[in-house]
C-alpha cells in the first residue's frame, strides 16, 4: 500500500537529512516535493494546503531552534504533522472503541454497498470475541458478541453475515427480509440483553449512493439502538470519493469513527490521509485483507512512519 507516496516521501526525507543548513530555497523545494507527493497520492487539496502551511510555519522555528541538525528536525516536523493529520491531535485513545457502556454495547455499521460492511462486521466480531480490544493500553478481555443484519433489501446480505459469523464463531441472530429494519433492531437489542451479550453489532443496508431514504432509515436505527459506536465503513480505493461520502454521512449521522477497508489494494493512500481532516472523525480501523483476520486498529503514529518509509 501507498508505494508511490512512501517512495516519494522517503526521497524527500533523505534529501532533508542531508541538508547542513536550511535555507529559504531548500525549504521551499522540500515543501514543493511534499505537496506534489500528497497530491499524487490523491489527498484532498484543502488538506494538502493546510498541511504544507503548517509544516512551513514550523519549519521557520526549526531553523532557529535546531541549528545542529536542521534537516533531521524538519523531518521530525513532517512526521509530527502527518501524525496529527491522521488523528493524533484527538488524543491517544481516539482510535479505540469505547465499549464501557452498560452491556450490550451496540455498534452500528454504516456504509455504501460493497464498501466491506459485512466483512468488517465479521472481522470486528472476531477481534472482540478473541479479546483483541485494547482500551487505555490494556486488553479488555474476550467479549460475547452477537451480530445481526438489518439489510432487508438483499436477502443475500443476511446469508452472507450468517456465513461470516459461523466462520469467526460468534452468534448470529437470524432476521428476515419481510421484517422492518427497526423491528429487527428492537428484537436484537432485546435478545442481546436477555442473553447477556457484551456487544451487539448491527450490520445495515448499503445503497449504491447516498439517498434520503437510506439516511432516514439509518438515523431511525441510530435513535432506536443508541449505539456507543457508529462506524462508517468506506473503501479506500475510492480515494477522494470515499472521503466525500464519509463526510456526507458524518454530517447526517453522529459517527464515532471510520473504518477504511481494502487498504491492501490502495496504492495511493489519499483516503487514509484525508478522512480524519475532512470528516473530523477518527479513523479507528483499517481493513488490510479479504480474510477475516485482516483488520488492524489504526495508529496515526505508525501510519505516519510507514508513509515516510
Ligand atoms: P458490503 O456490501 O459493504 O457488506 O461489502 P462486503 O463486506 O460484502 O465486501 C465487499 C467485497 O470487498 C468482498 O469481496 C470482500 O471480501 C471485500 N473486502 C472487504 N474488506 C476488504 C479488505 O480490507 N481488503 C480486501 N482486499 N477486500 C476486502
TrEMBL record:
It catalyses: GTP + H2O = GDP + phosphate + H(+). GTP binds at residues 111-118, 203-207, 261-264. Its EC number is 3.6.5.4. The keyword Transcription regulation does not apply. Keywords: Cytoplasm, GTP-binding, Hydrolase, Nucleotide-binding, Ribonucleoprotein, RNA-binding, Signal recognition particle. Signal peptide: none annotated. It is found in: Cytoplasm. Residues 282-295 form the SRP54-type proteins GTP-binding domain. It comes from the Bacteria. It is an enzyme of class 3 (hydrolase). Composed of three domains: the N-terminal N domain, which is responsible for interactions with the ribosome, the central G domain, which binds GTP, and the C-terminal M domain, which binds the RNA and the signal sequence of the RNC. Part of the signal recognition particle protein translocation system, which is composed of SRP and FtsY. SRP is a ribonucleoprotein composed of Ffh and a 4.5S RNA molecule. Involved in targeting and insertion of nascent membrane proteins into the cytoplasmic membrane. Binds to the hydrophobic signal sequence of the ribosome-nascent chain (RNC) as it emerges from the ribosomes. The SRP-RNC complex is then targeted to the cytoplasmic membrane where it interacts with the SRP receptor FtsY. Interaction with FtsY leads to the transfer of the RNC complex to the Sec translocase for insertion into the membrane, the hydrolysis of GTP by both Ffh and FtsY, and the dissociation of the SRP-FtsY complex into the individual components. Belongs to the GTP-binding SRP family. SRP54 subfamily. This is Signal recognition particle protein. It comes from Alcaligenes ammonioxydans. The lineage of its organism: Bacteria, Pseudomonadati, Pseudomonadota, Betaproteobacteria, Burkholderiales. The gene is ffh.
Amino acid at each position: 500500500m501507498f508505494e508511490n507516496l512512501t517512495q516519494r516521501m522517503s526521497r524527500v526525507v533523505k534529501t532533508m537529512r542531508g541538508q547542513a543548513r536550511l535555507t529559504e530555497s531548500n525549504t521551499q523545494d522540500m515543501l514543493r516535493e511534499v505537496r506534489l507527493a500528497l497530491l499524487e497520492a490523491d489527498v484532498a487539496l484543502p488538506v494538502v494546503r493546510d498541511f504544507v502551511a503548517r509544516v512551513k510555519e514550523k519549519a521557520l522555528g526549526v531553523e532557529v531552534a535546531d541549528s545542529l541538525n536542521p534537516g533531521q528536525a524538519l523531518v521530525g516536523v513532517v512526521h509530527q504533522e502527518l501524525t496529527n493529520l491522521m488523528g493524533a491531535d484527538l488524543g491517544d485513545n481516539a482510535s479505540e472503541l469505547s465499549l464501557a457502556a452498560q452491556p450490550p454495547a451496540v455498534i452500528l455499521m454504516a456504509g455504501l454497498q460493497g464498501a466491506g460492511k459485512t466483512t468488517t462486521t465479521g472481522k470486528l466480531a472476531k477481534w472482540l470475541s478473541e479479546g483483541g480490544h485494547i482500551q487505555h493500553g490494556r486488553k479488555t478481555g474476550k467479549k460475547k458478541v452477537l451480530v445481526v443484519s438489518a439489510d432487508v433489501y438483499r436477502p443475500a446480505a443476511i446469508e452472507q453475515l450468517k456465513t461470516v459469523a459461523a466462520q469467526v464463531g460468534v452468534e448470529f441472530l437470524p432476521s428476515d427480509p419481510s421484517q422492518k429494519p427497526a423491528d429487527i433492531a428492537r428484537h436484537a437489542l432485546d435478545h442481546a440483553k436477555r442473553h447477556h451479550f457484551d456487544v451487539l453489532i448491527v450490520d445495515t443496508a448499503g445503497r449504491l449512493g447516498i439517498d434520503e431514504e437510506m439516511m432516514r432509515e439509518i438515523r431511525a436505527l441510530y435513535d432506536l439502538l443508541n449505539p456507543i459506536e457508529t462506524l462508517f465503513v468506506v473503501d479506500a480505493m475510492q480515494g477522494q470519493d470515499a472521503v466525500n461520502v464519509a463526510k456526507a454521512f458524518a454530517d447526517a449521522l453522529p459517527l464515532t469513527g471510520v473504518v477504511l477497508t481494502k487498504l491492501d489494494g490502495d496504492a495511493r493512500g489519499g483516503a487514509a490521509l484525508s478522512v480524519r481532516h475532512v470528516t473530523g472523525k477518527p479513523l479507528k480501523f483499517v481493513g488490510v485483507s479479504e480474510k477475516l483476520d485482516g483488520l488492524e486498529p489504526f495508529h496515526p503514529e505508525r501510519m505516519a512512519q510507514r508513509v515516510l518509509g
